[in-house]
């Protein structure tokens, strides 16, 4: 067992209060309020973070007709947009998003792309660099006012300004139409949020289609028109509205989309409609289109077409998927008495993973997110498997995660697939319903969604291997330094290390808030209140920060400032520990303690050598030189000492006598904020008897000195060690300075051979072994 620290001194009780005073101030102000950074509250957005009495937002309703050309991989379409001005402003023009123009030959994204040529380059990278050879931008046909009058318009890369013939006044609406066409990108060559995958084995295409129509930009109280160009990272800012979309595709295709199918009798067989009805109350997913049926469809080509019509209310966007390869399953759940159809569309290449997990994951996600945010009110939630690795739209998302061709898969592939479905389905809440501006702040949807994804993963399976959320998982990123990081509060297109910055860091920060700073009860209430306040509205970062503080009753400005506005890292250190005990004034006790310290003190090198080299001293040779002090014991307790102690005790009150003999231990612990990020101080003390105690000291300990503080701990038992952040709650980037006595932080390095061959996944190895065991004796394999 480790021995406790040796006390450095007795502690005079009269000196305790002055000793606790912290007089040094570093001059920094990490606890300053955020008023100078956040917008001034007004009647639209209040200081509490709630929408104000005069809050407003615009509305855009769509009637869209679109046709898929399966021979040329192209889209043609037309739409009627009814735009309602609910602002107090008069509008003389409207801004429309043309996000498909990111694939235009003159794309601003391609022109501003930077990078370096590597010694080795995958073909996919070369395809991406040469994407300007692919003409995938919108070809705008006509822009007309309702009634047929042409409207003047100007295209500015991914934005189009439509000039109105007369100003659009408050409470007025205008209906206009647009026709367009574009070529669909091969998603495996030009990686975007939408595209097709070609299957050479059966010569079929699978389409995941989004950003396929000109969409209204947001006009809001806090920034006017949101017409920042779509450069790639910053996703979408869109108003709510009702959609009616008619999709014409080959007659043998299955089409899934945002919203509810309006014409099932025209596009589904009687058997498919019966299966859908059965699925509404099923406990497990029901196949609407089986793998056998999908494989049969792969072998033929219909000459005609079908038009699938979908309708959706109060959504901000619309997406769809189409293929004759689709297997389709569904299962109904109840959310607060309202039915929700959870569904999946996937090719046979996705099985067995997709048939086993996808729809179950969809249902689990809707239930869990509803618990932590608001009840899911849309009628469907769909997961589609195809070439897009992960992308979200209202009620429908595109997800990756495909097993090997033999049906086996690694654990990473399984959990990666489950996680991406949770994440993308979860986007129904952030930002599809709680409709933040992704073009400006990716973290407001990706970060909040990744945090809730973490909660949902942990409720899927005990000790689920979540990639993001746990503070320990972000330490490597936090170590990368300020030159490789940008603050979370950086525009989406300017962020460095997009995944860690927009996804992992805000999600981790929220987890620290929930577990360490606020506690689950306060955090969960505030987080749910934010979702409730801003459902079907357009929140800003200030609305989130203010609501979390307002609903939790906690000043968190120091946290937002450090975690969101800087690149400081969490690195707290113990710089010193001094142990004091109370001087009991009892000469017998104190003299014995002093004698023990003297006996325990090591001899110096000179003392040790003198003992060997000097056999006899002069006093040894001439005893007559000795006097009183040669036999005097200054630590011997005399009767006079005892009498003085008794007189002292008589003059003390019973409470003072008790404190004098309490035997308490006082530890003065020096703490330093090395990384600069303000965090609570979490201390674990291990006592002499092996027992441990952990305490969390609020971050306000740093309020008068942001850099260094001293904290006094009072214990009944001697302490043998102090450790900061023992459960890795704060993403501390250097654990080597977290302990006293100091101990080395464990680490490892790996030896490997170059050009190692990839190993089959464990499931593949097991399957191969079973096949060998089942092979008849003498068999050489092969088929007839």
TrEMBL record:
It holds the Pfam family Peptidase_M1. It comes from the Bacteria. The keyword Signal applies. Residues 753-784 are annotated as: Disordered. Residues 1-21 form the signal peptide. The keyword Signal applies. Coiled coil: none annotated. Residues 357-563 form the Peptidase M1 membrane alanine aminopeptidase domain. Keywords: Signal. Residues 755-771 have a biased composition (Low complexity). InterPro entries: Peptidase_M1_aminopeptidases, Peptidase_M1_dom, Peptidase_M4/M1_CTD_sf. This is M1 family metallopeptidase. It comes from Hymenobacter duratus.
């Amino acid at each position: 067992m480790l021995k406790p620290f040796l006390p450095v001194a007795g502690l005079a009780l009269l000196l305790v209060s002055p000793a606790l005073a912290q007089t040094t101030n570093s001059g920094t102000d990490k606890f300053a309020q955020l008023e100078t950074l956040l917008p001034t509250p007004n009647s639209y957005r209040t200081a509490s973070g709630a929408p104000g009495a005069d809050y407003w937002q615009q509305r855009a309703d769509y009637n869209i007709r679109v046709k898929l050309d399966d021979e040329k991989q192209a889209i043609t379409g037309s739409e009627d947009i009814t735009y309602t001005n609910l602002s107090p402003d008069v509008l003389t023009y409207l801004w429309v998003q043309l996000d498909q123009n990111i694939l235009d030959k003159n794309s601003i994204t391609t022109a501003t792309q930077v990078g370096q040529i590597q010694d080795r380059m995958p073909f996919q990278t070369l395809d991406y660099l040469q994407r300007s050879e692919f003409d995938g931008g919108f070809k705008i046909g006509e822009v007309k006012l309702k009634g047929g009058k042409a409207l003047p318009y100007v295209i500015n890369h991914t934005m189009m300004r439509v000039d109105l013939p007369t100003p659009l006044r408050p409470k007025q609406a205008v209906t206009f139409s647009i026709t367009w066409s574009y070529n669909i990108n091969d998603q495996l060559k030009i990686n975007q949020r939408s595209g097709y995958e070609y299957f050479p084995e059966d010569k079929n295409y699978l389409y995941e289609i989004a950003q396929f129509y000109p969409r209204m930009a947001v006009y809001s109280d806090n920034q006017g028109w949101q017409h920042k160009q779509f450069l790639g990272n910053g996703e979408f800012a869109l108003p709510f509205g009702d959609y009616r979309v008619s999709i014409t595709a080959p007659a043998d295709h299955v089409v899934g989309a945002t919203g509810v199918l309006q014409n099932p009798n025209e596009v589904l067989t009687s058997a498919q409609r019966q299966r859908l009805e059965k699925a509404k109350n099923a406990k497990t997913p029901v196949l609407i289109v089986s793998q056998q049926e999908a494989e049969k469809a792969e072998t033929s080509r219909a000459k005609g077409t079908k038009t699938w019509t979908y309708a959706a209310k109060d959504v901000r966007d619309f997406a769809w998927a189409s293929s004759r390869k689709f297997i389709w399953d569904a299962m109904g759940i109840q959310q607060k008495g309202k039915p929700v159809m959870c569904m999946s569309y996937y090719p046979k290449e996705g099985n067995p993973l997709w048939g086993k997990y996808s729809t179950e994951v969809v249902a689990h996600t809707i239930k869990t997110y509803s618990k932590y945010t608001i009840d899911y009110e849309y009628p469907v939630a769909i997961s589609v498997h195809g070439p897009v690795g992960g992308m979200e739209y209202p009620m429908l998302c595109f997800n990756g995660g495909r097993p090997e061709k033999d049906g086996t898969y690694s654990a990473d592939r399984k959990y990666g697939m489950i996680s991406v479905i949770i994440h993308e389905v979860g986007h129904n809440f952030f930002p599809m319903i709680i409709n933040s501006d992704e073009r400006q702040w990716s973290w407001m949807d990706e970060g909040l969604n990744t945090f809730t994804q973490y909660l949902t993963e942990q409720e899927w399976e005990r000790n689920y291997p979540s990639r993001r959320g746990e503070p320990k998982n972000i330490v490597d990123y936090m170590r990368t330094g300020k030159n490789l990081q940008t603050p979370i509060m950086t525009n989406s297109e300017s962020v460095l290390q997009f995944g860690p910055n927009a996804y992992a860091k805000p999600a981790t920060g929220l987890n620290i808030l929930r577990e360490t700073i606020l506690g689950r009860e306060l955090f969960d209430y505030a987080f749910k209140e934010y979702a409730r306040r801003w459902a079907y509205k357009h929140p800003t970062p200030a609305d989130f920060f203010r609501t979390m503080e307002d609903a939790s009753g906690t000043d968190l400005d120091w946290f937002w400032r450090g975690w969101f506005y800087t690149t400081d890292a969490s690195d707290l250190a113990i710089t010193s520990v001094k142990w004091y005990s109370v001087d009991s004034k009892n000469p017998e006790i104190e003299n014995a303690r002093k004698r023990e310290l003297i006996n325990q003190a090591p001899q110096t090198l000179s003392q040790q050598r003198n003992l060997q080299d000097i056999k006899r001293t002069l006093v040894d040779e001439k005893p007559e030189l000795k006097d009183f002090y040669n036999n005097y014991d200054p630590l011997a307790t005399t009767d006079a000492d005892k009498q003085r102690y008794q007189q002292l005790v008589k003059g003390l009150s019973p409470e003072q006598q008790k404190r004098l003999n309490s035997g308490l231990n006082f530890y003065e612990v020096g703490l330093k904020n090395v990384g600069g990020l303000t965090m609570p101080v979490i201390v674990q003390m291990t006592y002499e008897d092996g027992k441990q105690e952990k305490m969390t000291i609020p971050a306000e300990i740093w309020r008068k000195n942001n850099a260094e503080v001293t904290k006094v701990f009072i214990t009944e038992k001697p302490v043998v060690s102090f450790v900061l952040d023992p459960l890795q709650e704060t993403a501390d980037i250097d654990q080597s300075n977290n302990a006293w006595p100091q101990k080395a932080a464990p680490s490892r390095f790996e030896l490997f051979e170059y050009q190692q061959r990839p190993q089959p996944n464990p499931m593949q190895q097991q399957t191969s072994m079973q096949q060998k065991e089942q092979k008849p004796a003498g068999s050489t394999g092969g088929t007839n």
